[in-house]
Design goal:
The protein is an alpha/beta fold and 133 residues long. It has one domain. Strand 7 and strand 8 form a beta hairpin. It is globular and about 40 Å long. The relative contact order is 0.23.
């Protein structure tokens, strides 16, 4: 199951983080969905609709091939903008996450007030329950 949340100054990062935590099968599904964006570049993928979103650290995350037109976005909405060839590079960076037991990758988001952390095997259900209690 994909889990999603927003965390200010996450683990000592210099910026805030949007965290996607998953297992290796979830990552395969994620990069499959991202790969399909090339078929319909005007579409976006709403990660928050396919993930369990933290109750206390909620966020909405869209994967899109184009930079959002509106610069007036709410603080809890982020875009993972992946035009070609950035989409291909992102998928290539996600593939190793399907082979590791505990690993992560960082990606840029828009607006740039947060970074995306995609993690496998580092944040389990007990961790999410603790941060939501």
């Amino acid at each position: 199951m994909l889990r999603l949340g927003f965390f200010p100054a996450f683990l000592g990062l210099s910026s805030n983080a949007v965290l996607i935590a998953a297992d290796s099968d979830d990552i395969k599904s994620l990069y499959g969905a991202i790969s399909r964006l090339s078929e319909a570049p005007a579409e976006s993928l709403a990660i928050h609709e396919i993930a369990q979103v933290s109750r206390k650290h909620s966020v909405r995350l869209f994967v899109t091939a184009k930079q959002p037109i509106s610069s007036n976005t709410a603080s809890s909405i982020y875009y993972w903008v992946l035009p070609e060839p950035a989409r291909i590079a992102a998928v290539e960076m996600l593939v190793p996450l399907t082979k590791g037991s505990a690993c992560h990758q960082y990606f840029d988001l828009a607006p740039d007030s947060a970074s995306l952390v995609v993690s496998v095997g580092e944040y389990d259900a007990k961790w999410w329950q603790r941060i939501d209690d």
